[in-house]
Amino acid sequence: MVAKGTKVSITEETKNPFEDHVKFTINPEKKVSFPLYLRVPSWCDNPAAFIKINNGEKAMMGFIPGEYIKIEKTWEEGDVVTVGFPMKLSLRTWEANKNSVSVDYGPLTFSLKMDENYVQDGDGTEEWPAWSIYPASPWNFGLVMNGAKPSDNFEVLKKAYPSNDMPFTQEGAPIEIKAKGKIIPEWGMDSTFLVEELPLSPVVSDQPIEEITLIPMGAARLRISSFPVIR
């Protein structure tokens, strides 16, 4: 970028959306004054959000989700701006989709973690095979939810960031959510192996409560991300 005729490079370091900190290093060719605008994510309404400049004190600036923060100063080579937008669990209810529920953590939406069965079929060749992926473990769960807030029903587990820098895989996802669910026997797949229409929530199920694992939707090849709710 160019500010008042001076070239400025800005380097971003982060593992977002799996962590809530972002570090910006500003390197102008010479000292120059310009405004730096940072957008507050619409999902972040946590009062612990902060901006820190050159390892100074954290500044609480009355953040407004979805709005921009303006930092105006004379920038020098090596200036560092660190921002933190703490994530939290939240739920979305899809009234138009049978009152189903999606589970979010910060900017991530989560899907059921399930085993996968790869079957070679289609018009592929041995050199360039074509695969279909089918579920190899139960998938037709409804969520069991008790309590007044999402944290009453879900546990966020954070793991080490993968050394191969591939977080959007079942094995590498550095965030998982533990939840409780019940299988809904009457909810299945049709003759073409597509999931049948969601049952209307709340759903009655006489099946036992099981612990289920949710992973970021981008890490799941087979995705159940809108869940029925158990009565």
Key attributes of the depicted protein:
16 strands; 41% strand; 231 residues; single chain; five-stranded antiparallel sheet; seven-stranded antiparallel sheet; mainly beta
Present the secondary structure layout.
Blueprint: E1 2-3, E2 6-14, E3 21-28, E4 32-39, E5 50-53, E6 68-75, E7 79-84, E8 89-94, E9 100-105, E10 108-112, E11 116-120, E12 131-135, E13 141-143, E14 155-158, E15 175-183, E16 210-216
Antiparallel strand pairs: 1-2, 2-3, 3-7, 4-6, 5-7, 8-9, 9-10, 10-16, 11-12, 13-15, 14-15, 15-16
Description of the molecule:
This protein is mainly beta and 231 residues long. It has two domains: 2-84, no CATH class; 89-219, no CATH class. The chain contains no helices and 16 strands. The protein has strands at 2-3, 6-14, 21-28, 32-39, 50-53, 68-75, 79-84, 89-94, 100-105, 108-112, 116-120, 131-135, 141-143, 155-158, 175-183, 210-216. The radius of gyration is 23 Å and the shape is globular.
Number of strands: 16
Tally of individual helices: 0
Number of domains: 2
Major β-sheet profile: 7 strands, antiparallel
Low-confidence stretches: none
Bulk shape: globular
Tell me the helix content: under 10%
Average of the residue pLDDT scores: 92
| Whole-angstrom Rg | 23 Å
